[in-house]
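Lab notebook, bench 4. The sequencing result for the construct came back, and we need a structural model before the next group meeting so we can plan mutations. Quick request posted to the team channel:

Model the 3D structure of this chain.
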Amino acid sequence: MRIALYPGSFDPITLGHLNIIRRAARIFDALHVCVMVNSAKQTMFTLDERADMIRRTVRRLENVVVETRDDMLLVKHAKDIGAGVIIKGLRAVSDFDWEFQMALANKIVEPDIETLFMTSSSKYTYLSSTVVKEMARYGVDLGDFVPREIIDDILARINK
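Done. Here's the predicted structure in token form:
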């Protein structure tokens, strides 16, 4: 069985993330989407809230599993679940620098796990969770940014 792991903070999941999930789910027998803590980011939603939003968004994708991790190095988690590949989405060249460094470090820790870089579809190259939160704060219609299943969650949090 070919298992891949797609990690991220997903705060919140965007249409760009969903595009990568759908494409990776077609390539692998099982895709684990792992919501993780990024110590460099202040999140709007808890780990469990983010995982719930993703589950509602991908519920029709039978080979996608959504999970959370806050206690383990990503590459160690990949090994634990039997994933041979870590999926990393790239929007621009600027994303590549950091992700390339991480891929090299992960290869030292777990040499048998590969990193697969998937470029964003061109219509999502500008899109990030930060952009979504900024648009939401100013009342922009989020339909072009996030899955419809989670728009109300974002608006409720912004208006809180």
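Strands lie at 3-8, 30-36, 64-69, 85-90, 114-119.
Will bring this to the meeting.
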